[in-house]
Amino acid sequence: MASKTLLIPVASMAEPDKVNFLELAVEPADGLKPDDALQALGQVGLALQQAAAAARRAWTAFAPPETVKVRLANPVGVNVTNSRGAALGLALSPFLHGPDAPYRVAIVMGGLEFLEDGLLVVSATDCLAEILRAIQARGYRMEPVLLILPWDGCGDEEDAILLNLAALNIAVRRVNTFAEACWACEGRIERRVRARP
Question: Phi, psi at residue 139, to the nearest 5°?
């Protein structure tokens, strides 16, 4: 299986109004134990350490199909403001390596949230329109790119941008739960989901 790329929209501490991307290289990890899957992130700033811990916690409720190695490929800075988004991206990384997963590049937006009833949900992200414009500006025109984002937070401007992303070969998947986001990474048949009330 080939290495995959995971992009997580973040803002640097120095420029909170500027959207950039935390780029992770996700690779199969033969011989690693599941709790070592994120070992390369161990010394990369407090926010990412917290994100890695949240990802491991998610795996106790929804076991990943494979163990992977995740390394920081292109950090926007050691300290990032979007540790919730990083947690979601890291937790989803093993699911990009399923045998039928059709995507080499995935963009993950939103946060990983643990509700009191044990449900893992994908929560809304801030500055959605700015992030979508930043994705559009990257100009993807290659193999299919997967964009995962939550149902919450979309308005007319965001919906219009999402329609334009299809021309860039970006597959948009709106999800409510962590399980639905995993299915999207695996390339399973798209399931109908409803926005949470």
Answer: 70, 50
Rg of the chain over all Cα atoms, to the nearest angstrom: 15
| CA separation for the pair 123, 88 (Å, rounded) | 10
Mean pLDDT, contiguous 10-residue spans, the chain (197 residues): 80 69 82 68 71 90 85 61 84 83 86 89 85 82 83 79 82 91 80 42
d(CA 169, CA 67) in angstroms, rounded, equals 28
Neighbours of 43 (CB within 10 A): 10
Q: Helices in the chain by DSSP H: which ranges?
A: 46-61, 83-92, 128-138, 156-165, 178-186
Is 1 within 8 Å of 64 (Cβ atoms)?
Answer: no
Q: Say what the pTM is.
A: 0.84
Whole-angstrom CA distances from 17 to 20, 72, 180 are 10, 23, 30
Integer Cα distance of 73 and 177 in angstroms: 27
- Collapsing DSSP to helix, strand or coil, 6 comes out as strand
Residue among 77, 71, 90, 78 at smallest CA distance from 18 = 77
Give the burial string for 62-93 (b: 16+ CB within 10 Å, else e).
Answer: eebebbbbbebeebbbebbbbbbbbbbbbbbb
CATH code for the structural domain at 4-186: 3.30.230.10
Phi then psi dihedrals of residue 191, to 5 deg: -100, 145
